[in-house]
Design a protein that fits this description.
Elements lengths: L16 H14 L18 H16 L4 H7 L5 H12 L4 H12 L9 H17 L6 H11 L5 H8 L7 H31 L8
Organism: Vitis vinifera (Grape)
Protein name: Retrovirus-related Pol polyprotein from transposon TNT 1-94
């Protein structure tokens, strides 16, 4: 059986670095190259020298080929896999005070915009959470659940009250599941209404014969 082929979208500085980093790490694992991220000095001493060189060169080329031209220019001087990886993290996962505050403010002020589906809203919310986790800022499960609920618009008021009261704990995954289920119900309801409307429009009236 041939090896499965996995493609990772090139990181160009505009797409999500956190997701690209996650996928890139998975790709290196699939190709048995993940040890290259440890750096040459931290590779197992039992590994043969020619194997080390091959491992490091392959991993380096895989990452290089997964970067857009603009990114390549920024990290061109990084010669090793570990140096290249750390350079990208320092550029796009900076833990500076300004970046930490920016991402925290983004989370605490995040609100559902008009016309946005719940799936889109959840995706934006989870991106903010992942960006925070990538710079070692942990948000408790209960806080994530509360922040998600308070970010919803007025159409979710009754549902929010039902979820937040009358229980001993609040789990983020449970809130997400409830929101997905509600959206599914809305979609099914809209489809049924559409089917009924289509059926009524297609109904033909046979004139009675007197």
């Amino acid at each position: 059986m041939g090896a499965a082929k996995f493609d990772v979208e090139k990181f160009n500085g505009k797409n999500d670095f956190g997701l690209w980093r996650l996928k890139m790490g998975a790709l290196l694992v699939q190709q048995w190259l993940q040890d290259a991220l440890l750096g040459e000095k931290n590779l197992p001493s039992t590994m043969q020298e020619n194997h080390k060189i091959e491992l490091l060169e392959k991993a380096h080329s895989v990452i290089i080929l997964s970067l857009g031209d603009t990114m390549l220019r920024e990290v061109a001087k990084a010669k090793s896999t570990a140096e290249l990886w750390l350079k990208l993290e320092s550029l796009y996962m900076t833990k500076s005070l300004a970046n930490r505050l920016h991402k925290k403010i983004k989370l605490y002020t995040f609100k559902m915009t008009s016309g946005m589906s719940i799936e889109e809203h959840l995706d934006h919310f989870n991106k903010i959470i992942l960006d925070l986790e990538n710079i070692d800022i942990a948000v408790s499960d209960e806080d994530k659940a509360i922040l998600l609920l308070t970010s919803l618009n007025a159409s979710y008021t009754n549902m929010k009250e039902a979820i937040m009261y009358g229980r001993d704990n609040l789990a983020f995954n449970e809130v997400q599941s409830i929101l997905h289920a509600r959206e599914l119900q809305k979609q099914e309801g809209s489809k049924e209404e559409s089917d009924l409307a289509t059926g009524d429009a297609n109904t033909t009236i046979t004139p009675s014969i007197v």
